[in-house]
Design brief:
The complex is a heterodimer. Chain A is mostly beta strands. Chain A contains no helices and 10 strands. The chains are: A mainly beta, B mainly beta.
């Protein structure tokens, strides 16, 4: 099974600052990586797919990069509504696998 | 707009069965693969099962293989998850989600609690 490792587990950031979240795959997944945001009591929401593509309803402050085994989600200027848990997920291999999540909290 | 609404969750004893449903609307259900993903209390996301758009391809996580069955009824725009031989470790919120690769729409989830 392909293992996805996210770091850090918790990221403390002040509003307006940049947040950088990492995701590493145990083997190459090309660019078949998605990022999701989950707030308490809510379902996950797709933020990024194909490692760097953004659905039309996702704000431009969210960006993704990387390929192969190393990926990054960047939130350029954190807004109050961005404090949440973020998961990466690979869809290059079966079974689909998620990372353990990064919690972005207010500093 | 795309809507996915899960139902069928509840409290069940170990070893018993339960069937979850996911009613889809706002898109061409027959054109999309569908998934079940679960989240145990206070933990991360675990993919459970996939059924392809036409039902021809089905995949399961090892943790549920042989116990869970995913299916779809295109005439009812509904996705199902038949869960048998339930274990305490199956306790989770179960989400249905749409997508052939990334999961672009998710339902709000239904809670399954396996306890004696």
């Amino acid at each position: 099974e392909l293992v996805m490792t996210q770091s850090p587990a918790t990221l403390s950031v002040s509003p307006g600052e940049r947040a950088t979240l990492s995701c590493r795959a145990s083997q190459s997944i090309n660019s078949k990586l998605a990022w999701y945001q989950q707030k308490p009591g809510q379902a996950p929401r797709l933020l990024i797919y194909g490692a760097s593509s953004r659905p039309t309803d996702i704000p431009a402050r969210f960006s993704g990069s990387g390929s192969g085994t190393e990926f990054t989600l960047t939130i350029s200027s954190l807004q109050s509504e961005d404090f949440a848990v973020y998961y990466c997920q690979q869809y290059n291999n079966w079974p689909l696998t998620f990372g353990g999540g990064t919690k972005v909290e207010i500093k | 707009q795309v809507q996915l609404v899960e139902s069928g969750g509840g409290v069940v004893q170990p070893g018993r069965s339960l069937r979850l449903s996911c009613a889809a609307s706002g898109f061409s259900f027959r054109s999309f693969a569908m998934h079940w993903v679960r989240q145990a209390p206070g933990t991360g996301l675990e993919w459970v099962a996939l059924v392809s758009y036409d039902g021809g391809n089905i995949y399961y996580a090892d943790s549920v293989k042989g116990r869970f069955n995913i299916s779809r009824d295109t005439s009812k725009n509904t996705l199902y998850l038949q869960m048998t031989s339930l274990r305490p470790e199956d306790t989770a919120v179960y989400y249905c989600a749409r997508g052939s690769q990334e999961l672009d729409y998710w339902g709000q989830g239904t809670l399954v609690s396996v306890s004696s």
